[in-house]
Amino acid sequence: MKKILLSGVKPTGTAHIGNYFGAMKQMVDLQNSGNYQCFLFLADYHALNLIQNRDEMKKLTLELALDYLAIGLDPKKSILFKQSDISAHTELAWIFDTIVTVPYLERAHAFKDAEAKNKEINVGTFNYPVLMAADILLYDTDVVPVGQDQKQHIEYARDIALKFNHTFGPKNVEEYKDLIFKLPDSLILDTVAVVPGTDGRKMSKSYNNIIPLFATREEITKAVMSIVTDAGIGAIGTDGKVSDGKPINLYNIHKLFKAKDKLDQLYEMNKGKYKSLKDDLIEDIDAFVKPMRERREKLAKDPKKVIKILEKGAKQAKKIADKKLLEVKKAVGVL
Ligand code: ADP
Ligand code: TRP
Fold it and tell me: The domain containing residue 96 runs over which residues?
């Protein structure tokens, strides 16, 4: 029996190398390992908290579908779909809403961040972890590959599964196999848990510090040239160690693209020569991205084909999700 892997990304903007190394690459690698049945989706209902413009939503969703296919997600091996196509996600989220408490959701990092910014927070943002729990639990997911920032959300999914099982599952705790929801684990690779951006903070669309994944040579050059290199002797690197004068931020990005021995040699030979080091990084990124970029350009010529792939994936996912939802409806007594 294959293990179940599930993950999603929100169509909220340009995919970047942080998304790729932090989460998307694991999706491809594990899909190709043959050991997992993979459910990979576009979290468009989550994105709706941010993207509230019809044309933009359509455009960003298609773009992310292209990204998925271009990095090597394969509809013959994985089930690729759009979250909003499967109404069981939102329906289950409502059922979870009735067992999840307000103080519990108030402890979520994302909520606290939004609150600290003094934003008027919409209910969708507040409820974000509940919909995400539904995404995950509907498919009996074993593993969820994500970046570090999503760890708490997976813990929420586990907690919600436990609470549901406790409230509505079989009373005999010996019967674990009959519990309704399986507890998922996050899969976070230490080395890429937090990919730094051009300013040294976590790379993120919202910080304006990204290197786009499908960037052209010119865009790569522009982003790399803006990488901050001023971490001198005594600065603390993202690995928590005191820097020996290496431009730690540049190095940490570069190590995603070059083997450590070669990289150390390069930085040793080019001490203080930030321009040469950056030129080398531009070459490395361009060589790495080029085949994916070309594949994406080809796919972009046939958007109908992409839409068909998502429709087919939705049909496959729906069967499984609806079956689970039926079990849940029986368990709570509405059926
Ligand atoms: P962003 O912060 O740019 O909006 P998303 O929230 O869309 O990114 O993240 C999509 C996926 O990529 C998630 O699994 C997230 O954990 C991962 N991810 C995002 N940024 C990084 C990063 N800098 N390092 C590692 N993983 C990341
Ligand atoms: N919250 C995730 C992010 O910001 C996207 C997401 C939604 C997700 N549902 C999910 C990730 C279920 C993994 C599993 O990137």
Answer: 3-193+303-332
Give the residues surrounding ligand 1 with Cβ less than 6 Å away.
Answer: 9-10, 12, 18-19, 22-23, 146-147, 149-150, 192, 194-195, 202-206
User: pTM of the entire structure?
Assistant: 0.93
How far does residue 10's CA lie from ligand 1's centre (Å)? 9
Stretch 92-113: mean pLDDT, rounded? 97
Query: Looking at residue 245, which CATH number applies to its domain?
Result: 1.10.240.10
195 lines ligand 2 (CB under 6 A): no
| Residue 198 included in any domain | no
Q: Looking at the domain assignment, is residue 199 inside a domain?
A: no
SS3 content of the chain, % helix, strand, coil (to 5): 55, 10, 35
Proximal ligand: closest to the CA of 135: 2
Q: Per-residue pLDDT for 178 more than 60?
A: no
Asked whether residue 243 is domain-assigned, the answer is yes
Ligand 1, atom 12, lies closest to the CA of 19
pLDDT at 260 over 90: yes
- Residues 14 and 210: beta-carbon distance below 8 Å: yes
Claim to verify: residue 51 and residue 110 sit in the same structural domain: yes
Q: In whole angstroms, what is the distance from residue 270 CA to residue 127 CA?
A: 50
For 70, the token pair is 């271009």
